[in-house]
Design goal:
The chain is globular. Helix 9 runs antiparallel to helix 12. The chain has one domain (about 15-325): NADP-dependent oxidoreductase domain (TIM Barrel, Alpha-Beta Barrel), CATH 3.20.20. By secondary structure, the protein is α/β, with parallel strands linked by helices. The longest helix has 22 residues, at about 150-170. It is built from 12 helices and 12 strands. Strand 10 and strand 11 form a beta hairpin. The two termini are about 25 Å apart. The strands form 3 sheets. It has an 8-stranded parallel beta barrel with strand order 1-2-3-6-7-8-9-12, surrounded by 6 helices. Strands 4-5 form a two-stranded antiparallel ribbon.
Length: about 325
C-alpha cells in the first residue's frame, strides 16, 4: 500500500474519488437516471475510487453503486463501505430518516459487535452484488454521536470491532481496515491502541477547519495511515460561499464565525481570480498524509466542475495572503 489504498487504481494525478452519501438521497432526492449518469461520467473521467455506507439512504447508495460497478472488472476499482449500523426491514419504516429522504424501507440500529461486523459486511456485499470490499471503515464511533455511551463504544471497537475486521481481512472479504468519522479526538484515541490501514476523515481538514492539522495528520503521516478526505466543502459553505447571507457547515446552518471566515476567504479568492471551490479542493491535497478527496457529488455537472476546479491555477500569492491574514496556519502545506 505504498501509494495508499485508493490510489492503487486511480490514474496518475487524479486524486478525486466519488463519495456515496448523496447517492443515498442526503438532504434531497437524486433521481435514478441522474445517479446512473453521474456514475457513468465519473468512471469515464477516470474515477476508480468509491465510498458508500449502509447509513446512506438505508442501503440505497450501496445498491446504486453496486448496479454501476458490478459489470466492471473487480480489480479495476477500489470500493469502501462501513460497519457499525445494521439495517432491519420494516414495512412501517419512515421514508425520511437521519437527514436522508425517500430511503429504502429499513430501520437502522447500532451494532459494533463481532457478529454485527460480519453481518454488516455480508449485508453490504449482498446489496452491492459483490464478493469483497476493498476497505471497511468503522462508522461514527465519536462522542457527538454516542454521548455518554462513547467510552463503551470505544472499548468495544478496540476489543471486538477491529479484531473482527482483521479476521475478515485474513479471509479476503475486505482488504483494508479504517475509521470513518468527522471527529479528530476519537481517531487519536484509537491510534494509541491500534493500527489502521486508512482513514476516512470528513470535514476536519479543509480550507475552513484545520482541527486535524496539529496532531492527527502528523501521526498519520509518520505511521503510514493514508487519509481519504470527505466534506472538503464542509457540507456546502465552501462550494456556495456566503454572499447570500449564510450556508451549510457541518450538516447544519453555519454559525456566524464560519460565515465571517468564509466571507474573508471569498474576498481573497475574488482578488486573485480564484474560484472558492478550486481553493477548497486543492488546499487539503497538499498535505502528505492526504491521499485523495472523496467528492459527494449529486449530478454529473458537479463532478465535471470538481475536475475543472482541481486544474484551475491558484497563484502562490493567494496562499501567502491567506497565511498573512491568519486564514491558514503557518505550518499548513499549500499546493
Amino acid at each position: 500500500m505504498a501509494h495508499g489504498v485508493f490510489q492503487a487504481c486511480q490514474p496518475d494525478g487524479l486524486a478525486l474519488g466519488l463519495g456515496g452519501a448523496p447517492l443515498g438521497n442526503l438532504f434531497e432526492r437524486v433521481e435514478e437516471g441522474d445517479a446512473r449518469e453521474l456514475l457513468e461520467v465519473a468512471w469515464a473521467s477516470g474515477c476508480r475510487s468509491f465510498d458508500t455506507a449502509p447509513h446512506y439512504g438505508h442501503g440505497l447508495s450501496e445498491r446504486r453503486l453496486g448496479d454501476a460497478l458490478r459489470a466492471r472488472p473487480r480489480d479495476d476499482y477500489v470500493l469502501a463501505s462501513k460497519v457499525g449500523r445494521l439495517l432491519t426491514a420494516s414495512p412501517g419504516a419512515a421514508r425520511d430518516q437521519h437527514g436522508y429522504v425517500d430511503v429504502l424501507p429499513f430501520n437502522q440500529h447500532w451494532d459494533y459487535s463481532a457478529a454485527g461486523v460480519r453481518r454488516s459486511v455480508e449485508d453490504s456485499l449482498q446489496r452491492l452484488g459483490l464478493s469483497r470490499l476493498d476497505v471497511a471503515f468503522v462508522h461514527d464511533m465519536d462522542a457527538a454521536t454516542h454521548g455518554e455511551r462513547a467510552p463503551a463504544v470505544l472499548r468495544q471497537v478496540l476489543h471486538e470491532t477491529l479484531p473482527a475486521l482483521q479476521q475478515l481481512k485474513r479471509e479476503g472479504m475486505i482488504r483494508a481496515v479504517g475509521l470513518g468519522t468527522n471527529d479528530v479526538a476519537v481517531v487519536l484515541q484509537v491510534l494509541r491502541h491500534a493500527g489502521l490501514d486508512t482513514l476516512m476523515l470528513a470535514g476536519r481538514y479543509s480550507l475552513l477547519d484545520h482541527s486535524a492539522l496539529p496532531q492527527l495528520l502528523p501521526q498519520c503521516a509518520s505511521r503510514g495511515v493514508r487519509i481519504a478526505l470527505g466534506g472538503v466543502f464542509n457540507s456546502g459553505i465552501l462550494a456556495t460561499g456566503v454572499k447570500g447571507g449564510g450556508g451549510l457547515f457541518n450538516y447544519g446552518p453555519a454559525e456566524r464565525e464560519w460565515v465571517e471566515r468564509t466571507a474573508r476567504i471569498e474576498a481573497l479568492c475574488e482578488a486573485h481570480g480564484v474560484p472558492l471551490r478550486a481553493a477548497a479542493l486543492q488546499f487539503p491535497l497538499a498535505h502528505p498524509a492526504v491521499e485523495i478527496v472523496m467528492l459527494g457529488a449529486r449530478r454529473d455537472a458537479e463532478w465535471r466542475d470538481a475536475q475543472a476546479m482541481l486544474r484551475h491555477p491558484v497563484p502562490a500569492d493567494f496562499w501567502r495572503e491567506m497565511r498573512a491574514q491568519g486564514l491558514l496556519p503557518q505550518e499548513a502545506p499549500t499546493p
